[in-house]
């Protein structure tokens, strides 16, 4: 039985969520147990049905419960042995503290995934199923835009979770985000010779645009993301943005700014390239719908399975506005899909059987724990000597230090203490913060038990470089 107190400042749905979560983690609610319907529980507790639904949605988004269509919610099977408080997780077992190989002891590389998070057993079974059932298709080339079954699954997922409005014909499978960007460049080349980008932003996108011969126009950010007023003063024929979790700062573009950006695209008869790279993974904040859902005719939408499933799958997708479909067919005519059929079909099975959504809930729960721990311990160790951004989504934190060293020098110093960090490249095209150094810290490859020791090693490595005056 749940007891809610209306006199507390904590909202009722939060109280309900926390009590159900506690019972799940304590084992009082067993895996597979059906929880009461929102109608029944609202009647039992004399609260609104909306309050119950909000609590259930939060539990569902974090992976504590799962849904059966038209039946209700059930308790997810959790590895309760791995659940601990942040203080308990900071206690490092003796055998972990004394690794035999000092190099690479702590993995904070951006984009790297912990193998323990990947459902390899399901994936192996589906690969074998594909080999058994798809022998004829495996001996032929695939359609240029990809397997129709997988595109249907992607269309369904994007509609349900990101509000994307599209038909199967608008989706093209690619071998990664940079391949998606290359395709966008080929479709836009006849319309413009310049593309605006966020500054700071994804260096890989800058490279693709430059290699395609576009003039790159860096647009600064403010608190709400890309400065649309600055964009409007340029002659950019297109703009590349990451509105749901700006890379690398993590800023979320609010609806007012999104509407201004859409208005700019309509006024100038051009396109927005929306990279929704971290939409799968969100922590401590509610997900917001895609920019594409506001202007499906003006947005080239793209995403991938790299951050949340496996980078080595090399599987991504582009959703084109309908007016670009004909051009894309001409462009891809006679060119087989760059994603192997065995990967496409296995991924289709993976989504059809519900593994993708269950995997996302598990990943979100596990990565939220690492995200929160890393951020908290960084603040405790470095105090006012660092500023942290990039929070609440994706697989990285952006750390800004006031120090007398370059990014490469900090990465090298960390490596000497056994901490692996991957260079972020040139995030800023117009760097204005003299004396400020930025480092991307990934948290998707390191186990929670090692985070405290990793940050301690970082502090020891970077302490000689820190300026006496904190940020």
Layout of strands and helices, then pairs:
Blueprint lengths: L11 H15 L11 H8 L3 H13 L3 E4 L3 E4 L10 H4 L4 H4 L8 E2 L12 H14 L1 H4 L9 H15 L8 E4 L2 H12 L5 E6 L3 H9 L3 E8 L2 E2 L1 H5 L5 E4 L13 H13 L3 E5 L23 E6 L11 E4 L5 H8 L8 H12 L2 H28 L3 E4 L6 E7 L4 H10 L2 E2 L15 E7 L5 H15 L9
Parallel strand pairs: 3-14, 5-6, 5-8, 8-9, 9-10
Antiparallel strand pairs: 1-2, 4-11, 6-7, 10-11, 12-13, 13-15
Helix pairs in contact: 1-3, 2-3, 6-14, 8-14, 9-10, 15-17, 16-17
Question: Quick summary of this structure?
Answer:
By secondary structure, this protein is an alpha/beta fold. The chain has helices at residues 12-26, 38-45, 49-61, 86-89, 94-97, 120-133, 135-138, 148-162, 177-188, 203-211, 228-232, 255-267, 325-332, 341-352, 355-382, 407-416, 448-462, and strands at 65-68, 72-75, 106-107, 171-174, 194-199, 215-222, 225-226, 238-241, 271-275, 299-304, 316-319, 386-389, 396-402, 419-420, 436-442.
What features would you describe in this structure?
The structure is a single chain. With 471 residues, this protein is of the alpha/beta class. It folds into 3 domains: 12-81, Arc Repressor Mutant, subunit A; 86-113 and 357-465, Alpha-Beta Complex (Aspartate Aminotransferase, domain 1); 121-353, Aspartate Aminotransferase, domain 2, CATH 3.40.640.10. Helices cover 40% and strands 15% of the residues. The chain is built from 17 helices and 15 strands. The protein has helices at residues 12-26, 38-45, 49-61, 86-89, 94-97, 120-133, 135-138, 148-162, 177-188, 203-211, 228-232, 255-267, 325-332, 341-352, 355-382, 407-416, 448-462; strands at residues 65-68, 72-75, 106-107, 171-174, 194-199, 215-222, 225-226, 238-241, 271-275, 299-304, 316-319, 386-389, 396-402, 419-420, 436-442. The strands form 4 sheets. It has an 8-stranded mixed sheet, sandwiched between helices. Strand 6 and strand 7 (225-226) form a beta hairpin. Mean pLDDT is 87; it is low at 82-102.
